[in-house]
Amino acid sequence: MDAMGKVHDILEERGRQGALLADFDRMVVEAASHYLGDEENSIGFLYSGWCQAALPHRRLANEAGWQIESERMALVVEPGMRPTASGRPEAVGVPYGSRARLIMIYLQSEAIRTQSREIVLGRSLREWLTKMGIPVGGKSLKDVRDQCERISRCRLSLTVRHGSRVGLSNQNVVDTAMFVDGDQPGQGSLFTETARLSEGFYDQLRRHPVPLQDAAIRAIANNSMALDVYAWLAYRLHSLDKARPISWKAGKTQFGAGYGRMDHYKNNFRPILALALAVYPDARVEEDERGAGLLLYPSKPPVPSRAIALTSRSPQ
Q1: How many CB atoms lie within 10 A of CB 177?
Q2: How far is the C-alpha of 288 from the C-alpha of 243, rounded, in Å?
Q3: What separation, in Å, do the N-terminal and C-terminal C-alpha atoms of the chain show?
Q4: Please, is 116 exposed, middle or buried when counting C-beta atoms within 10 Å of its C-beta (0-12, 13-18, 19+)?
Q5: Tens-digit pLDDT profile for residues 7-45
Q6: Could you tell me the pTM of the whole model?
Q7: For 84-93, what is each residue's pLDDT tens digit?
Q8: 227 contacts 274 by C-beta, under 8 angstroms
Q9: How far apart are CA 307 and CA 42, in angstroms?
Q10: Alpha helices (H) along the chain
Q11: What mean pLDDT comes out for the span 200-226?
Q12: 50 FRET partner, CA 20 to 30 A, in 97, 201, 257, 310?
């Protein structure tokens, strides 16, 4: 993966066409180009637990729960229920995909920026999603509304391991439901004007926020696994004091729940990693020469400490 550092150099020296002629993957070139050309310096935040164990990428059966594990934690997401006219509640399904991730990043970024559990919704959420390249209209509006309801109703169980100690946290993401209005004449607003993060979720976020660059998120906003890998690297690399090997088996447990065979996972993960590295130029990641997995090296964080301090104490 050391070639990834070169794509940014080539883009700056020869432009997008020069990088394509240098035989870089088009998706990587486009992501790196959008990232480098993005002049907005805004910052997002994500709880460190979500950087290690994320949501499913594809829709599951509405009644199905979700479990994923990483080195230090295991996440279980239970689908919530909603009432029906028949008198029997029905499961709404767990949140999934890139839309759910973007909504989660918005909620957590706003909470850190304003230092409040109360998150403004309505036009603020729609404008932020539009900035991320997700115009909220038509099918996209339906998708966002669906993910908002799934996030509102689901319940999380997070098991964290520190050596021989094990901690367990059970919580909702929010205390009040989120519904996205359609902005259509006569339809009326289905929006709760604010959402309130649950106290447990907010406390964890405040203690362990991981800063992310909005420009990076924007450049890979439609790829849920690339978002996960970027967040993981943002959390992991700057805390290292020496090279750290990550086996393919460990990587598959964390990122490859949908792959039965290891070779399928590796073949699909490599281009996803390249995409994440395209929006994190300072990340130093290589494949192990013996083919055992990846080597992570100490790297600069994607967001400088000074920028984080300014963002977290300057609500707008």
Answers
A1: 15
A2: 11
A3: 39
A4: middle
A5: 777 777 777 776 676 777 888 888 988 898 888 889 999
A6: 0.89
A7: 999 999 999 9
A8: no
A9: 9
A10: 4-21, 26-37, 48-52, 97-114, 123-131, 139-153, 199-207, 214-219, 224-236, 248-255, 262-278, 305-312
A11: 95
A12: 310
What pLDDT was estimated at residue 309? 61
Distance, in Å, from the CA atom of 231 to the CA atom of 275, rounded to the nearest integer, reads: 12
> Is the per-residue pLDDT at 312 higher than 70?
no
d(CA 20, CA 127): 32
Say if residues 71 and 236 touch (Cβ distance below 8 Å). Answer: no
Write phi, then psi, for 102 (nearest 5 degrees): -65, -40
According to DSSP, residue 22 is labeled T
> What's the CA angle centered on 44, arms 94 and 175, to 5 degrees?
45
The 285-287 sheet, strands edge to edge: 244-247, 293-296, 285-287
Phi then psi dihedrals of residue 112, to 5 deg: -70, -40
| Dist CA 59 CA 68 (whole Å) | 15
The helix/strand/coil state of 215 is helix
One-letter identity of residue 51: C
- Span of 40-54, 93-107, 142-156, 301-315 with lowest mean pLDDT: 301-315
For residue 222, the model assigns a pLDDT of 93
